[in-house]
Amino acid sequence: MEKRTAILHANCQGRPLAARLLASPEFARSFAPRVYLNYAREAIPEAELAACGLFLYQHLGPEWGELSSRALLDRLPAGCPRLCIPNMFFRGPWPLWSGAPGFDYRDVFLDRLLEMGLPGQEILRLYLQLPLERKYDLDALLAETVARERERQAHTPVKYLDFVLEHWRRRPLFFTVNHPGPELLDLAAAGILRELGLAPPDPALSPDASALGQGYADFELPVHPQVSAFYGLAYGGQDQTYTVYGRAKTFAGYAAAYVDCRLAGIDDFIGYLQLA
Q1: What domains can you pick out in the chain, each with its CATH number?
Q2: How distant is the alpha carbon of residue 136 from its chain centre?
Q3: How far is the C-alpha of 151 from the C-alpha of 153, rounded, in Å?
Q4: What pairing do the DSSP bridges indicate for beta strands 97-98 and 106-107?
Q5: Which of 59, 71, 88, 125 has its CA 20 to 30 A from that of 225?
Q6: How many other CB atoms sit within 10 Å of the CB of residue 42?
Q7: What is the pLDDT along the chain (276 residues), one digit of tens a residue?
């Protein structure tokens, strides 16, 4: 039987999800997945859309123009199955994370201290020792990320947020705010297959960590020990080490690299971490 093309229009979660979908023998017999990265604005060729046998997409609003979900759905052939899939994001363990451009993995408190022009060692001392709950409403920041994730989840029938809220204090579920770990990717893949009426993944065919793709699991965003204590996390203590591009770093060591990189005027934090 000739396989139909399954287009996944998704972010960095698309490739590991595709690998997990292929662990379903029924999906693997029927479909050949093709991943197009939405955040990179990869164009999907018209011929590919015209021959599409299954369209899996993370919701993108009208501000994305021709790559918006509505625009792409309108270009699919009649009768082509389509399913909005999860776009998982969670700031819970990292309430001070900021998506501001110009520097990767920005931290609002560290950036504020840097803007004050303090010496590096003083920045680190204040960042690590000042009580965070006196400066930031950590409960409100958690409620904010949960509310925003409920809005994102509303676009897809594949639910995951209740699982996150039940388990995120017990063990890490994300590598970074937008890189869910294998447990959540497996949950999403099983939900997608269920919605499609296809057999679930075969555990014997479940992909290993290499299927996450280069760069996906190379970095674990460290958790501030005060955040860990405030939320009652079973991880994130001051002695815990994290995978930081091939090196093991504590939170304090990671924060020191952040400060050193910024004070040196280097914008490529990822490149700096790979060498530091």
Answers
A1: 4-89+156-201 (3.40.50.12080), 97-142+219-275 (no CATH)
A2: 24
A3: 5
A4: antiparallel
A5: 88
A6: 11
A7: 689 999 999 999 999 999 999 999 999 999 999 999 999 999 999 999 999 999 999 999 999 999 999 999 999 999 999 999 999 999 999 999 999 999 999 999 999 999 999 999 999 999 999 999 999 999 999 999 999 999 999 999 999 999 999 999 999 999 999 999 999 999 999 999 999 999 988 887 777 766 787 778 899 999 999 999 999 999 999 999 999 999 999 999 999 999 999 999 999 999 999 987
Q: For residues 45 and 237, give the distance between their C-alpha atoms in angstroms, rounded to a whole number.
A: 48
- Decide: 56 and 34 in contact? Cβ < 8 Å: no
Residues in the chain: 276
Distance CA(191)–CA(17), nearest Å, equals 11
CA distances, 39 to each of 22, 74, 218 (Å) = 23, 20, 20
C-alpha distances out from residue 53 to 6, 37, 65, 177, Å: 6, 18, 23, 32
